[in-house]
Amino acid sequence: MLPILDRYLIRKFLGTFFFILAIVMAISVVFDVSERIDDFLESNATFWEIITVYYGNFVLYYGNLFSHLLIFITVIIFTSKLAQQSELISILAGGVSFNRLLRPYFISATILVIIALLLNHFVLPMSNKARIDFHVEHLWNSFKIRENNLHREIEPGVIAFAESINLEYNTAYRFSIEKWEDGKISEKIITDRAIFNPEDSSWTLRYVTHRKFFEDGEESLRREISLDTLIPVVPKDFGERPEIAATLGYNELNEYIEKEKLKGSDQVVFFEIEKHQRTSYPLATYILTLIGVSIASRKARGGIGLHIAMGFVIILIYIFVMKVSTVAATNAGVNPLISVWIPNIVFLILAILLYSKAQK
């Protein structure tokens, strides 16, 4: 049985957190409804589907996504209130050490971390699939691949290139396939236009140039106006919505990353970031909890307002560092594992410094 002090602080922690979470999610839903009301009216989604499928999963996803930041605000608010009412001073003066005071905070944080980890790795992928399926069916326009000069390794040593893809017409422009053996190109097929036939998964190539390269340096050249062939790739393989990462379970995500690496996909980094964030975000709760207690436990002349302002400044800095590190992974080639954990490492150092100066 936990001591009275622990039960009191845990009740304060969890009660304040879920109250703030409910308020933030209610406000988020109101803003989202006002933004999407026209889309809902134009879609064929029923009111029940909008409430249960869309907003049920909307609250689950965004509530969990920002939970570690809301936990930080929670700690700031209720700890600052305890400090302003001199309750913390009484507790510390009564012989309770600051380290002992942290115990109920970290018990509460652990409960929320476990919930977040279970949601991230097991529950949310299914929830996100339902939410994104709703988007695809009722809200999103048809998916378009806007990138140019795309390439995929469709088989070991076989690489497909496309200057551009039009999914609406299942057509790849300036399409080519290269076959490589022992580091040398052995065959290349170039076509002005390749049309995918969904009925039998075949491709129709228009204005084809077929070149073969031999070991003696000779090559053969053949041209055809039209050629029907089977190629183990479909147009959508050249581009996926990044949101699909959120619909994959842990094992599925690992398998998908390995498959995309074999294809030479430049989208791999987004999926690796998603994989690592599922663990790094919940564990940031411990760091932000320590920062929150260290800041708010000291009675300040500015009161709760000053502590909340400091909390929001720290959150903004955390989000900024998180965004910069993510961009470093996607655009500068930084390892996704390192980039995802950089914000936690930076703020762990800050947490230790603030803890050393906290009111003991």
Explain what the structure shows.
A hairpin with a 4-residue loop joins strand 2 (158-166) and strand 3. Helix content is 61%, strand content 18%. It has a six-stranded antiparallel sheet with strand order 1-2-3-4-5-6, with no helix packed on it. The chain is built from nine helices and six strands; from the N terminus they run H-H-H-H-H-E-E-E-E-E-E-H-H-H-H. It has two domains: 4-140 and 267-357, no CATH class; 150-238, no CATH class. Helix 3 (67-84) packs parallel to helix 7 (268-296) and helix 6 (250-263) crosses helix 7 (268-296). The protein is of the alpha+beta class and 360 residues long. One of its GO terms (cellular component) is ATP-binding cassette (ABC) transporter complex. It is found in: Cell membrane. It is a multi-pass membrane protein.
Topology:
Layout lengths: L3 H39 L4 H19 L1 H18 L2 H7 L4 H42 L10 E6 L2 E9 L4 E11 L2 E14 L4 E12 L5 E11 L20 H14 L4 H29 L6 H29 L4 H22 L3
Antiparallel strand pairs: 1-2, 2-3, 3-4, 4-5, 5-6
Structure characteristics:
cell membrane, elongated, 360 residues, LptG/LptF_permease, 2 domains, membrane, 18% strand, transmembrane helix, YjgP/YjgQ family permease, alpha+beta
